[in-house]
Amino acid sequence: MTDPQKTAALIRARAGDEPVRLGLILGSGLGHLAHAVDGPAIPYADLPGFPHVGVSGHNPHLHIGLLEGVRIAVFGAREHYYENGNPAAMRGALATLKALGAERLILTNAAGSLRPDIPPGDLMLLSDHINYNGLNPLIGEKTDARFVPMTDAHSPGLRAALRAAAAAEGIALKEGVYAWYSGPSFETPAEIRLLKTLGADAVGMSTVPEVILARFLGLEVAAISTVTNMAAGMSDERISHEHTKAMAPLGAAKLERILRRFLSTQG
Hints:
The protein is of the alpha/beta class.
């Protein structure tokens, strides 16, 4: 495994030595937020241990600098399990974030809703998740650190701060359980009925491996979904990746306001 301290040193040489306070992984529709960061954009290809990213609509650069007065590291893209079959694809990047001094991580994603009261364009703060795949990014870890407790994996403190930011912006932010489905094919209506029975409120193809890795690394974590569609069998809309990219900006504008408000309270 690539040494995250060496990768962090490469980043400091280009972005300065000041510690990073927070990491932010951007999902579909939020790429422009990375360009608002006052600091350099470093291609993933220049950073050992960072993933290959092959999903259209994503920006494979690490942006380090100030946003709303807070020094953050914004990951413009993530590698999904379905790209190469590796649930630990983001481990090197997140270990580097930790080496840069960060203690917290906020994840964003595009998701399908299983609840009529969370329609496309709305946001959902993750209260918990279901690892529907059974895959785990810590398989192969040799130390006892692999036995990571996942109670309150989605930080109550961070969630409260994000709820407060949403309320200050007058934006509805419901909470719910996110189920991770591997992709790249979308779920069947029967699978969605199963997930509803299991207690899921939204479904997507990312985020859960990163939550597990973040907790393994000792990072406090929270996540927000932008709802881009109703899940299979719940509406007449035609689900596709192009549809996801087209719908993501509807919720992304609201999510950006929440994130900026949240950051403005962290000074």
